[in-house]
Design a protein that fits this description.
By secondary structure, the chain is mainly α. The protein contains eight helices and no strands. The protein is globular and about 85 Å long.
Length: 230
């Protein structure tokens, strides 16, 4: 796929995801809906629904805005950099972070897409360590420059912030990186003509040196055999 086309599609996918979150929040405000039932309540049977729905609900416009910007940027990077694995990564982070919160988080109603954003960031960070190609490292550096603070928000900081969602999102992102680190092919490294010429010259020089060494060793062996015959 053309690089520009892939980038355009990545941005469109991210904008669509953010637009969906804003539509839900707008409907909640306009119609006076109470969507707290979509939240994730740990160890409660009715909270199981939140494993799927909690990332769609936000407590305030500020909360939604912060997550929207992160989804737009990190989502675009994942879609663009890893076109074959991005859907698996998003699905695993979404579900696994929710399951972790349901099993181990504090007694509260956990909502918001922060677990997803932390999962995407940690996926980009860890997968670049394994792949080490130029594109993965470049994407990771951009992500770290903008959201490197996520490495600290997986720990308890403020009472009303679900650090558990951050933590389990990060864990899910690391697991996704371990599983699908080789799913997407690495970019082809372009070689210029002068590099090929130099490599051919080096190969020819190595062959000549090897042949010369072989002839010398044969000559030495003949001399030794002749001495033994006398």
């Amino acid at each position: 796929m053309n690089q520009n086309k892939r980038l355009s599609q990545s941005i469109i996918y991210s904008i669509f995801a953010v637009a969906l979150l804003w539509c839900i929040k707008s409907a909640e405000i306009l119609f006076g809906w109470n969507l707290s039932f979509m939240g994730l309540v740990p160890l409660h049977a009715n909270g199981l629904l939140g494993i799927v729905t909690a990332p769609l609900v936000h407590s305030s416009l500020e909360h939604l805005f912060n997550n929207s910007l992160a989804i737009l940027l990190l989502g675009t990077m994942v879609f663009y950099g890893y076109p074959k694995s991005w859907l698996k990564v998003v699905g695993l982070v979404w579900l696994l972070s929710g399951i972790g919160v349901w099993l181990f988080a504090r007694e509260a109603n956990h909502i918001g897409a922060s677990g997803l954003t932390h999962g995407l960031f940690f996926y980009l960070f860890v997968v670049s360590i394994f792949r080490r190609d130029k594109m993965s490292v470049a994407i990771m550096m951009i992500a770290f420059l903008m959201y490197g603070g996520m490495t600290m928000t997986i720990f308890p900081r403020e009472e009303y912030i679900s650090y558990e969602y951050h933590f389990f999102g990060a864990v899910a992102g690391v697991i996704a990186a371990l599983i699908w680190r080789n799913t997407d092919p690495k970019p082809v490294v372009k070689k210029y003509d002068w590099e090929n010429e130099n490599s051919d010259e080096v190969s020819n020089e190595e062959n000549d040196a090897w042949q010369q060494e072989w002839y010398m060793s044969e000559s030495d062996t003949s001399d030794v055999d002749n001495n033994r015959l006398h």
